[in-house]
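Whiteboard transcription, Tuesday session. T.W. wrote the C-alpha cells on the left side:
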C-alpha cells in the first residue's frame, strides 16, 4: 500500500462579528480553518482558507459580517492505486466538511491526488 495526498478546494460563507472589513475577513479565515481542524480525524493533513469577499455587510451596528471564504483541505489515504485513493479521499473530505458544519459549502474543483510515498 502507498500513501496518497488527496486535496479538494471548497467555498463557504462564515458569519463573524467584527469592527472592520479587514478584521471580519481575518476572523472568517481563522474560524473556517479552526472548524475544519476540529472536525479532522486521523486522515486529516491540512487546511488553508482565505476570505475572498464580503458576502453581506452588517445592516446595523451590532450585526455580523457574512464573508465568503475559499479553502483547500488535504487528507492522507493509504491505498493500492491512485483511483481508489481519489475515491476514498473524496469521501473523507466530504465527511470532514460536513462534520465541520460549514455554512452552505460547495466544491470549487475536482479531487487532486498527489504522490505515492
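and on the right, the sequence the group agreed on:
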Amino acid at each position: 500500500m502507498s500513501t496518497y495526498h488527496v486535496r479538494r478546494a471548497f467555498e463557504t460563507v462564515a458569519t463573524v462579528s467584527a469592527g472592520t472589513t479587514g478584521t471580519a475577513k481575518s476572523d472568517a479565515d481563522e474560524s473556517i480553518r479552526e472548524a475544519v481542524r476540529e472536525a479532522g480525524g486521523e486522515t486529516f493533513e491540512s487546511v488553508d482558507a482565505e476570505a475572498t469577499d464580503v458576502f453581506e455587510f452588517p445592516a446595523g451596528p451590532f450585526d455580523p459580517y457574512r464573508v465568503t471564504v475559499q479553502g483547500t483541505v488535504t487528507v492522507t489515504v493509504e491505498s493500492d492505486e491512485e483511483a481508489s485513493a481519489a475515491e476514498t479521499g473524496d469521501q473523507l473530505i466530504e465527511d470532514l466538511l460536513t462534520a465541520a458544519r460549514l455554512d452552505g459549502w460547495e466544491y470549487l474543483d475536482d479531487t487532486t491526488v498527489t504522490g505515492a510515498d
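Someone added at the bottom: The longest strand covers residues 2-16.
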